[in-house]
UniProtKB/TrEMBL annotation:
GO cellular component: cytoplasm
Name of the gene: aruC
Residues where N(2)-acetyl-L-ornithine binds: 142, 281
Cofactor, how bound (note): Binds 1 pyridoxal phosphate per subunit.
GO biological process: L-arginine biosynthetic process
GO MF, one annotated term: pyridoxal phosphate binding
Catalysis: reaction(s): N(2)-acetyl-L-ornithine + 2-oxoglutarate = N-acetyl-L-glutamate 5-semialdehyde + L-glutamate
Name of this chain's protein: Acetylornithine aminotransferase
InterPro entries for the chain: Ac/SucOrn_transaminase_bac, AcOrn/SuccOrn_fam, Aminotrans_3, Aminotrans_3_PPA_site, Class-III_PLP-dep_AT, PyrdxlP-dep_Trfase, PyrdxlP-dep_Trfase_major, PyrdxlP-dep_Trfase_small
EC number: 2.6.1.11
Length: 405
């Protein structure tokens, strides 16, 4: 079957209907531009939901994957492999962490983090200390455990009964957090910037108080940096920007530049609770994924890239604000680095997808974060010309929707 015989309609015939992808099928990309089956070009301001942090077909990533593909694809964790050891060493040298657990995704990294937090507290303090506190509007994955911890009821609907021992508190509300964390809390988990919840950054005072409360109650502080990690905010990990160090950190998405890989990072003390046989992952630490991620981390963790993210943030935010001065559809433009949210005004509530669809028609890939926020998460190394052209196309989309076209 040739590419021309593969259609969007075919997707609906063979796939479980849990996704509703757009009407086009991209076939290839270079940098921050992709092309569909008809040859139409798009500027990618979505980044595969903050995954393709170095754009499409980055030559160094292609080379790393190709080289490893000619050596070893898979061993399982019955044996160690060199790329996984090298990547774990690199991650511990670059962060607070001493130990690493590899997974295939962010959801699996969070699953491991929550299991570790409970087991650590069970060993250290007893079975009563098992409560996990999370935030309203948070998102931590799609497994039964992670949708239960996630603070959005719509993702739990129809899957009940869900695991117990989970509490939710309003995000950025210090008083509510003080009331929620107690002697039965084993962990508090938070996204430094809520992604799916609307691209809302945490207040520094909130995260610092969370650290104090966890220390006070012998609870672990978990940062879900699946979306904010690997340079997305202008620091390698967002905790570095806030000056608040967690006990456990989860990372995925941009870590593999598009190749599926995730990791849970933690300290030596906490890691000891995952003894042989307590947790695992068949593909976790896969040589192909680790080889690519090694190269990603080397490229991203440089002043050139990280400072570039900060500069590109200003370019994108000023561009969005200029669009808003003309059309008045955004109540706020917020976020950190190249994770940017444009919240819609009351008049446009619930219509974020209309703007995203119009953007696609105008040749630019964009995202939503719920029904009321447009989200942009482009490559960390997107060129200034691509930003300007992408925003020009995005402005045409905004104009169309705002003018009812």
């Amino acid at each position: 079957m040739t590419s021309s015989q593969v259609t969007r309609e075919m997707f609906d015939q063979v796939m479980v209907p849990n996704y509703a992808p757009g009407p086009i099928i991209p076939t290839h990309g270079i940098g921050s531009r992709v092309w569909d089956q008809a040859g139409k070009e798009y500027i990618d301001l979505a980044g595969g939901i903050a995954v393709t942090g170095l754009g499409h077909a980055h030559p160094e990533l292609v080379a790393a994957l190709t080289e490893q593909a000619q050596k070893l694809w898979h061993l399982s964790n019955v044996l160690a492999n060199e790329p996984a050891i090298l990547l774990a060493k690199k991650l511990t040298e670059m962060t607070f962490a001493d130990r690493v657990f590899f997974s295939n995704s962010g959801g699996e990294a969070n699953e491991a983090a929550f299991k570790l937090a409970r087991r650590y507290s069970w060993e250290k303090h007893g079975p009563h200390k098992h409560d996990i506190v999370a935030c309203n509007n948070s998102f931590h994955g799609r497994t039964l455990f992670t949708v239960s911890v996630g603070g959005q009821a719509k993702y739990r609907e129809g899957f009940e009964p869900v695991p117990g021992g989970i509490k939710h508190a309003p995000f950025n509300d210090i008083a509510a957090l003080e009331a929620a964390i107690d002697e039965n809390t084993c962990a508090f988990v938070v996204e430094p910037v809520q992604g799916e919840g609307g691209v809302t950054p945490a207040d520094e005072a909130y995260l610092k108080r969370a650290r104090e409360l966890c220390d006070q109650h012998n609870a672990l502080l978990i940062f879900d940096e699946v979306q904010t990690g690997v340079g997305r905010t202008g620091a390698l990990y967002a905790y570095m920007k806030y000056g608040v160090t967690p006990d456990i950190l989860t990372t995925a998405k941009a870590m593999g530049g598009g190749f599926p890989i995730g990791a849970m990072l933690t300290t030596t003390e906490v890691a000891q609770s995952l003894t042989v046989g307590t947790h695992g992952s068949t593909y976790g630490g896969n040589p192909l994924g680790c080889a690519v991620a090694n190269k990603v981390m080397d490229i991203v963790n440089t002043p050139e890239v990280l400072q570039g993210v900060e500069r590109k943030h200003e370019l994108m935010v000023s561009g969005l604000q200029a669009i808003n001065e003309k059309y008045g559809v955004f109540s706020a433009v917020r976020g950190m680095g190249l994770l940017i949210g444009a919240a819609l005004t009351d008049e446009w509530q619930g219509k974020a997808k209309q703007f995203m669809t119009a953007a696609l028609e105008e040749g630019v890939l964009a995202l939503i974060a719920g029904p009321n926020v447009l989200r942009l998460a482009p490559s960390l190394i997107i060129g200034d010309d691509d930003i300007k052209e992408g925003l020009a196309r995005f402005e045409r989309a905004v104009a169309r929707v705002a003018q009812g076209q």
